[in-house]
Structure formats: structure tokens, C-alpha cells
Design a protein that fits this description.
By secondary structure, the chain is mainly alpha-helical. It has a single domain, classed as Formate dehydrogenase/DMSO reductase domain (Formate dehydrogenase/DMSO reductase fold, Up-down Bundle). It contains 14 helices and two strands. The termini are far apart.
Length: about 350
């Protein structure tokens, strides 16, 4: 049952990144892909019906984590407190920029919120990537299962790391590149005219950089976290996840060359899911590695809720997940199709 809940948490977090990731990417390219007011309204309309619903999956994933692995939830939210407060402010600013942009008919007002939307989206992508880097690298857990991380120390991974070091900066940049391409493919899929063409050019331009950063981050991850070597050696079937990531990334280029917009976006989803699941199962059964010694790490064994609670919770989780997934599917189906500057 512990492994089942590990899979559920991993899948829900991956689902959140896939869904909210494209509207973060849309925000990252907002000022480049859309230059006129009508074009920018079209980009916002492409995510307008779904962006807040996408963020519900972050709450659902957090709730699942709290229920299944409460010590991990407690340690993570205390140790990453500073970073989480920054993320909270960025989420609020991003939501405010979407909702308030059209409330005042002033170019200065709209430009301010357009800039806020783009900057907050970029920083969120970077912070999410850095957060993943911190989890893969490990944190200085003590014997009580808690830790504290300053924003930075000497920018080196080791026994006294900060939230920011060269490895987490690399993962942050990787997340920004990957989600920017993901968002560009979404905007290309959902818009017409200049935003569609500019988004395609952005995706094509950044595509080689994504290959480069993925190769760099893979090599760096194996160097920083030896547990990944041990995990893939002990369970060769986990190599299926990196294979999915490579297949998805290669598929993006093939789909773009054939102008198959939906296929390109779905390949991007496959690519991101493969990356995230590779990281999750590469660490399994560890949930949060400790740089202070493997005995301090939080695992599914020492961090899970009681077995009875996990069993009963699973029975309640199934209908709740199906309801949320069904509603999400309905919204995406209902608002499918192209958006132009004159259709919203």
C-alpha cells in the first residue's frame, strides 16, 4: 500500500506539472508570442478557462502527500518555508495579473499586468525546477526528520547546501526551457495568426537547447545523487521512463516538421512525464534523500501513515480522483478549438 501511494503522489504531481506547466510556459512567452493587445488577449483566453483548475491539482497533490506521508509533508514545508512563501506570492501575482488585466482600459495598466504575468510565470518555472533539484540532490535532515535550508551558501552541493547551488540553478533553467517549449506548443495549438506562428518559432528555436540541458541535467543528477545509479541498476525496468522522455522529445521535432500541432503537444506531455517519473522512481523507495547520511533519509517505510488509514483512504481517493479527472476532461473538451483575437 505504501508503494501504491508513492505512485499516486508521483502521478498527481506529474499531472499538475503537465497541466499547469503549459500555462506557465504561455506566460513565459506572453510578451514575445503576442505583441498587440488582441493577440495577448487571445493567449490569455487560451488558458483562461483552465488555468485555475490546473492549479487545483497542486492542492490535490499536496493533500495526497499530507495524507499518505505526513512526516515528509511536515519536513518539506518547514525546511522549504522561504521558497514556499516566494512561490505563494508568485502564484498570487500571476492569478491577479490574469484577472485584473482587463479591469481598467489603460495601456499602462495592461502593460503592467502583462509584465507581471510573464515575470511571475518565468520565476515559478525556475523555482519549481530548483525544488525538484533540491529533492534529487538531498537536504540536511537531522535525526528528528527536519531540516533548514538558507537561500544559498557556497553554491555547492554537499553537507551544508542552500536552496540555490549550481545544480539547482541548472534544474531551474532546465524547467524554464522545458515548460517554455511546452507552453509554446499549447499556444500554437490554441491560437491563430501571428501568436501561432511566433509560438512555433519559439518552440523550434528552443528545441536544441532542451536537448542540451536534458543531457547536462542527466549527467549532473547522476554525479550529485549516486542513489540514481543504484536504483536503475537494481531495477532495470525503470529505464522505461527515460526512454519515454527521449521518445517524447524526439516526437516533438517530428510532429513540428509535419505541422501536427496536437501530436507535438502530446509528445511534450510524454517527455515531461518521462522526466518526472524517472526522477521519482530513480529515488524510490526514498522520498527525500539526506545529505547527512542515508540513515536520515525519509522513505516510504518511515514516513507513511498507518496501513489501515492508507487502505481506507485509497477507497475514498478513487471516486474523488475520478470526479476531478472527469470534470477536467469535460472542461478541456468544452473549450477545445482555436482562439483568435476576435473570438473572446
Amino acid at each position: 500500500m505504501q508503494t501504491i501511494w508513492f505512485i499516486l503522489v508521483a502521478v498527481m504531481l506529474a499531472g499538475y506539472v503537465l497541466l499547469d506547466g503549459f500555462d506557465l510556459g504561455a506566460g513565459a512567452i506572453h510578451l514575445i508570442a503576442a505583441r498587440l493587445d488582441g493577440e495577448r488577449r487571445a493567449v490569455l483566453a487560451s488558458i483562461g478557462p483552465v488555468w485555475d483548475g490546473n492549479e487545483v491539482w497542486l492542492l490535490a497533490a499536496g493533500g495526497t502527500l499530507y495524507f499518505a506521508f505526513p512526516p515528509l509533508y511536515a519536513a518539506g514545508f518547514s525546511g522549504f518555508y522561504l521558497a514556499l512563501m516566494i512561490v505563494l506570492w508568485l502564484l498570487m501575482l500571476r492569478g491577479m495579473s490574469i484577472e485584473l488585466r482587463g479591469h481598467v482600459d489603460s495601456p499602462l495598466w495592461r502593460s503592467f499586468w502583462d509584465g507581471t504575468f510573464s515575470v511571475s510565470s518565468i520565476l515559478l518555472a525556475v523555482f519549481y525546477g530548483a525544488a525538484l533539484g533540491n529533492v534529487v540532490r538531498g537536504v540536511p535532515l537531522n535525526k528528528d526528520g527536519y531540516f533548514f535550508l538558507p537561500l544559498w551558501t557556497n553554491l555547492q552541493p554537499g553537507p551544508n547546501p542552500g536552496i540555490i547551488d549550481w545544480y539547482t540553478v541548472l534544474t531551474g533553467v532546465a524547467a524554464l526551457l522545458v515548460l517554455t517549449v511546452h507552453g509554446a506548443l499549447w499556444v500554437m495549438l490554441r491560437t491563430n495568426g501571428e501568436p501561432e506562428m511566433r509560438s512555433r518559432r519559439i518552440a523550434m528555436t528552443l528545441y536544441p537547447a532542451v536537448w542540451g540541458i536534458v543531457i547536462a541535467i542527466t549527467a549532473a543528477s547522476f554525479a550529485v545523487q549516486p542513489r540514481l545509479w543504484q536504483s536503475f541498476s537494481a531495477r532495470p525496468w525503470e529505464c522505461a521512463f527515460p526512454f519515454l522522455a527521449v521518445a517524447g522529445l524526439a516526437g516533438i521535432r517530428v510532429a513540428l516538421s509535419r505541422r501536427a500541432q496536437l501530436a507535438a503537444f502530446l509528445c511534450s506531455c510524454l517527455f515531461i512525464a518521462g522526466l518526472l517519473l524517472s526522477a521519482a522512481f530513480g529515488l524510490y523507495p526514498t522520498l527525500l534523500p539526506a545529505v547527512t547520511g542515508s540513515g536520515m533519509s525519509l522513505t516510504i517505510g518511515n514516513s507513511s501513515a498507518p496501513a489501515y488509514g492508507l487502505g481506507v483512504g485509497f477507497l475514498w481517493w478513487i471516486p474523488a480522483f475520478l470526479l476531478a479527472a472527469g470534470y477536467t476532461a469535460f472542461i478541456y473538451r468544452h473549450f477545445r478549438g482555436k482562439i483568435s483575437s476576435g473570438t473572446h
